[in-house]
Amino acid sequence: MTGSADKATRRGGASLSRADLRDRYKAWLQHHRLCAADSLAKVLEAPVASLLTWLVIGIALALPVGLNVALENVQRLSEGWDSPAQMSVFLQQDVSVEQGDRMREEFSARADVDKVIFLSRDAALAEFSRLSGFADVVASLESNPLPDVLLVTPASALSEVGISTLREEMATREGVAEVVLDMAWLKRLQHLMTLGQRFVLAVGVMLILGVVLILGNTIRLAIESRREEIVVVKLVGGSSAFARRPFLYTGLWYGVGGGLAAGLLVSAALWYLDEPVRVLAGLYESSFSLLGLGLMGVLNLVILGGVLGLAGAWLAVARHLVRIEPR
To answer: What is the distance between the alpha carbons of residues 315 and 320, in angstroms, rounded to a whole number?
Structure first.
């Protein structure tokens, strides 16, 4: 009987412990809900001040994000320029069409050449007349001044040294007047893109630090305005986490609102620029259009803003909340 009583006592003690942990968890969860709702209500109680804070954070986040989106669009536009490299092999004026076609077959048979296109002088003149808009001037010419051209595309696996070697070998071929391979502009573009990415990264880091400091200062002011409330909480035995929680949620709401404002600002700017870009691309017979953030991009900005809000709030709370103690 005694053994049964001990077992009953142990079962009762275990049940009490589980209930106690469960109640503590429910209380902890309930306090989180109350803090989140109460902090959001306090933020919305001052709509003008909150809106200005959201706009400041939004502009700070929108600047690097907008620059990054612009770089991505430029990179997307230039994808067709840098691969593969193409050489223009200008033939001498006395080379016939039949000879040019045989040279095309000869160059196409090389292992280091991917593709060769023969462009006759008549086809080149017709294309120039169509694209330049000087059809009347071209029609008045007594003879065609353009040479036949072979457009040579090197193999994709060919290195820069191999491309230069191929160019030199083609330049020494009989019947070839000149071989043009201008890759200097492409290297400049690639270096400019790299420079732009690093510039955006540097600006983004500085502005993110600025956002954290802005949020930290905002939360510091909120802590000072609720100093007496914090003192009362600590007098009745409230833990530091208990006193800290409302301010962390305040920082979270400021950050989320700022991230949403940044997404709206970038989307509005892209919408404003989309039509002129389409018109300009149409003049060059291109269907290029700006690529925006999309729903996931805006959501990522909101998440980033929330994380920065928590970071700024934690920074302010860790520095200022511990200094408030009951006297």
So the answer is: 9
Per-residue model confidence (pLDDT) at position 54: 92
What number of CA atoms fall less than 13 Å from residue 49's CA on the CB side? 9
Q: Where are the domains of the chain?
A: 34-79+188-323, 87-182
**119 φ, ψ (degrees, to nearest 5):** -115, 110
pLDDT score recorded for residue 18: 52
Q: DSSP letters of 293-323?
A: -HHHHHHHHHHHHHHHHHHHHHHHHHHHGGG
* CA–CA gap between residue 127 and residue 116 (Å, rounded): 18
SS3 of 141, please?
coil
Which segments of the chain have a pLDDT < 50? 1-5, 7-10, 12-17
Q: Where do we find the tokens 């593969």? A: 84
pLDDT of 259:
93
Going by C-alpha positions, the residue among 201, 239, 212 that lies closest to residue 322 is 239
CA angle (164 as vertex; 160, 165 as ends), nearest 5? 115
d(CA 298, CA 210): 20
Q: How many Å separate Cα 135 from the centre of its chain? A: 44
Task: Determine the Cα–Cα distance for residues 238 and 260; give it in Å rounded to an integer.
Answer: 34
Cβ atoms of residues 238 and 277 within 8 Å = no
What residue spans of 93-183 are helical by DSSP H? 97-108, 121-132, 135-139, 160-171
The reported pLDDT for the residue numbered 224 is 80
Closest CA to 247 of 272, 266, 267, 220: 220
Residues with Cβ < 8 Å from 254, sequence gap 6 or more? 43, 50, 53, 54, 57, 215, 218, 309, 312
- The whole-model pTM stands at 0.65
Q: Record the tokens describing residue 118, joined without a space.
A: 């023969």
Query: Is 3.30.70.3040 the CATH classification of the domain at 87-182?
Result: yes
- 3-state SS, residue 6: helix
Q: Are 270 and 290 in contact (CB under 8 A)?
A: yes
